Amino acid sequence: MPARIEDVAATAGVSMKTVSRVFNNEPNVREKTRARVEAAAKALNYRPNPSARGLAGNRSYLVSLVFDDPAAGSSYIMEIIVGMLVACEQSRYSAMLRPLEYASADHIGAVEDSIARYRPDGLVLVPPFADDVKLLRRLDELGVRYATISAKAKIGHERVGTILDERKASAEMIAHAVALGHRRIGHVAGPLPHGGRAWRLAGYRDGLRRAGLPYDEALVVDGGFSFEAGIAGARHLLDLDEPPTAIFAANDDSACGVMHEAFERGLAIPRDLSVFGFDDTPTSRHVWPGLTTVRQPCRDMGRIAAEQLLALIRDPTAGELVHVPYELQIRQSSGPAPSRPRPRPRSRTR
Question: Which CDD domains does its entry note (predicted)?
């Protein structure tokens, strides 16, 4: 017969309530007691019954990651997911992925429907959901706990989750490009609903201003966080009469698209064009030349956001907004600006 909670309690010499508190990661359990209970559970090969656990604690022991469906295949989201799963595993929680279409007419209703259907104990939100003030206020009205990742919106109270100074990081990346001699630096911006677009564009402008370089609207193109958006943005910028010698893309996926288009035109990176990204996803390290980018610790951010959410679920006064550091990752895709103006590269016939 499978071991029961009563067997664990008897073996550890504690009450069943204490065993339950240990497996629910509740506070105020002495470390020696926790270790004794966990050792007894391991010796008996005990596995908590999820259904019974949920009924006893009036919880689902489930948290949900809500993200925009078009971003489902991005490296950024995958790293967030891995980090979140680590935190959930440590706290014996299950994680549910809820890709929803932010552009739909009733995305708030879609979030509410997901909550009603699956009854998660809390949500982890990434932009653009994390920046939707109406959604956040609705969750507050419903009493739904949530944590945000890289949110820009302010809703009148201290939030729980993780954040990184994307504006400052972007400005430092532009300073690096300027130090290499680049004076015409293009930017493939992120998608309009995403808060990161505004911060990275603002950082791009900050970097130009500090270097004494004018802001040229012709060097900024609307894009997105996809490989295809990077290709489209690069085509626009490289077709200019005076194309840039460097391009800063809003994320690594779009930066790889920029590199692809440059190669299609016979340009050498970084001899003819330097390329910069943002996120430091595994893709940035796997491509050649290696992509110069901003290291945003996406996996850590997913883990920390989930940890803060779980702390809030256990104690309404717990949880905080954790500021995480960034770091420039200088790789082979960035180099000195060309010493002589190069002719405008033409798109190859497709």
Answer: HTH_LacI (cd01392), PBP1_SalR (cd01545)
203 and 284 belong to one structural domain = yes
Same domain, 269 and 310: no
Q: For residue 160, is it within any domain?
A: yes
Q: What's the distance, CA 262 to chain centroid?
A: 27
Residues 128 and 236 in one domain: no
Residues 216, 212: Cα–Cα separation, whole Å: 13
321 backbone dihedrals φ, ψ, rounded to 5°: -95, 115
| pTM beyond 0.90, yes or no | no
In a domain, 334, yes or no: no
Q: What is the DSSP letter of 130?
A: G
The average confidence (pLDDT) of the chain is 87
Q: Which tens digits make up the pLDDT trace of 221-269?
A: 998 888 999 999 999 999 999 999 999 999 999 999 999 999 999 999 9
Which positions ≥6 away from 78 have C-beta within 8 Å? none
Tens-place pLDDT, residues 144-162: 999 999 888 666 567 899 9
Into how many domains does the chain fold? 3
Question: Could you list the residue range(s) of the whole structural domain that residue 52 is in?
Answer: 5-29+41-57
Contacts for 204 with CB less than 8 Å, ≥ 6 apart: 170, 171, 174, 185, 187, 220, 248
Same-domain check for residues 146 and 82: yes
Instruction: Tell which wins on pLDDT, 58 or 281.
Output: 281
185 with 270, same domain: the answer is yes
